[in-house]
Amino acid sequence: MRVLGLETSCDETGVALYDSERGLLSDALFSQIDLHRVYGGVVPELASRDHVKRMLPLIREVLDAAGSRPDEVDAIAYTAGPGLVGALLVGAACAQALALAWGVPALGVHHMEGHLLAPMLEETPPQFPFVALLVSGGHTQLVQVDGIGRYTVLGESLDDAAGEAFDKTAKLLGLSYPGGPEIARLAERGVPGRFVFPRPMTDRPGLEFSFSGLKTFTLTTWQRCQAAGDDSEQTRCDIALAFQTAVVETLAIKCKRALKQAGLKSLVIAGGVSANRALRENLEQMLGELGGHVFYARPRFCTDNGAMIAYAGCQRLLAGQQEGPAIAVKARWPMEQLAAL
Ligand code: KG4
Ligand code: ZN
């Protein structure tokens, strides 16, 4: 089965063609980062308008790159939520219109399920069951995964998502959007141990997260340095490293707890923050000590992309899942509501 995947939940237009026999045939992405950067974050209306402009040319590009004709596409998968409603509607409308024109089915996919399954596109895919740490701009969740659609949320963030914490902290330090890669870049040059930030909610049992306090801690540290006449680049790097280390270690502590609780030794990390090198290295070391493995996607499939939607949609379509021609999207959509395959 050959599935065209469309992703438009936020500020990236992603398109890909996945074949159940041959794997990923081609993929393309248009990132709107430059469009939103001047505003310091995503402007939903601008995001929707840009998806309208990019979608059809990207679909053509992906089909051409795969040497595939529209009549060789068996189905279209699109992100139906969670995300920005206007942006999601562009992908949903495009998918349903093409499905009608080409006489093939369309299927709405859960964005976080897409992220969760993205490591399946790599050479050594994880085997079920595993624990997944989903860390994106909108979500921070630990999920026990027993199969596709068999998800038990073990814990999540009570306030900011990990990616959101990176983005907001970066803004406080005068860095540009999106903040995750910027903080990671500065942290490379940071001096370890000059600042030590708290590891929120690690001194009590449980698998919940809270990252909003870290942002305030960063702000007061930076303001104190500035008031003392130290607003050097090195100090910004040192603060970026202290923040990143605090987030990474907090995530790692909770991952270890979740694996223990679930009695598992396989960990999948997915979503934009899973591209973070310090997080990968920390978890790799931890899983090595536990005699387990950590799985993640290549960096461009950690952030939003069409390949993960084509893959997730293909699995559900192969299992016989269907939907009608209605154009319906969801801003919020708990993963536990998904049908098990
Ligand atoms: O999964 P994603 O592309 O979009 C959502 O579904 O939200 O995640 C985007 C988030 C942003 O908050 C971005 O700052 C963060 O992922 N991110 C990173 C890195 N690359 C992207 N955070 C930390 N380190 C990175 N290298
Ligand atoms: Zn995402």
Could you explain how this protein is built, in words?
The protein has helices at 33-37, 44-66, 85-102, 111-117, 162-172, 179-187, 212-227, 233-262, 277-290, 306-318, and strands at 2-7, 12-19, 23-31, 75-81, 106-110, 130-135, 140-147, 150-156, 266-270, 293-295. The protein has 341 residues and is of the alpha/beta class. The strands form two sheets. The protein has a five-stranded mixed sheet with strand order 3-2-1-4-5, sandwiched between helices. Strands 8-7-6-9-10 form a five-stranded mixed sheet, with helices on both faces. Helix 4 (111-117) packs across helix 10, helix 6 (179-187) packs across helix 8 (233-262) and helix 7 (212-227) packs antiparallel against helix 8 (233-262). Zinc ion is lined by residues 111, 115, 136, 271, 304.
Strand fraction? 15-25%
Strand order of the largest sheet: 3-2-1-4-5
The ligands bound in this entry are: 5'-O-[(R)-(carboxyoxy)(hydroxy)phosphoryl]adenosine, zinc ion
Mean pLDDT: 98
How would you concisely characterize the structure shown here?
This protein is α/β, with parallel strands linked by helices. 43% of the residues lie in helices and 19% in strands. A five-stranded mixed sheet has the order 3-2-1-4-5, sandwiched between helices. The protein has a five-stranded mixed sheet with strand order 8-7-6-9-10, with helices on both faces.
